[in-house]
């Protein structure tokens, strides 16, 4: 039975000189069984989350950035009166219930691997935070001399462009790190 437990941790995001509480990233766990390295690896391969590529991975992080704003006229120009950028994400990681019969070496390898995998997946969520900062930076100086309707379109277009850039950077991150292997997120039972 696949059991998920959700943990929540808070991240802060510096935006425009203010420190705002970012949407908490959720951490979900899937259970892994086995008393040998081969059994643990097989369990992760069979139960791991499915990524955007349609393949199973030992860990996965999905993220989203939402932006909301209010516009107001300042004289003849439309300006952003308020802007809220909200990153959110879910990290899915394995959780191994260590049986007593598992070797000390296997337990040590698991600890090393689990920490490296979590670090790699945290790197994925960093793209949400970086994209949020970039959206805030690019939108903060916009004004709409052509009116609020035009400004609305420009805001949404620029924000979507930032998301596309950071999604491409995230793909490069996985290619460069070989899905975390170069960061130590490779299980050697």
Describe the structure.
It is a single chain. The chain is of the alpha+beta class and 189 residues long. The protein has one domain (4-183). It contains 3 helices and 7 strands. The chain has helices spanning 37-47, 104-139, 148-177; strands at residues 4-9, 12-15, 18-21, 25-32, 60-74, 77-96, 143-144. A hairpin with a 2-residue loop joins strand 5 and strand 6.
Give the gist of this structure.
The chain is an alpha+beta fold. The chain has three helices and seven strands, in the order ββββαββαβα.
Structural class: alpha+beta
Low-confidence stretches: 1-21
Number of domains: 1
Give me the number of helical elements: 3
Output the helix-strand order: EEEEHEEHEH
Beta strands, count = 7
Shape category: elongated
Strand content: 25-35%
In this structure, how is the largest beta sheet organized?
5 strands, mixed
Q: What is the distance, rounded to the nearest whole angstrom, between the alpha carbons of the first and last residues?
A: 23 Å
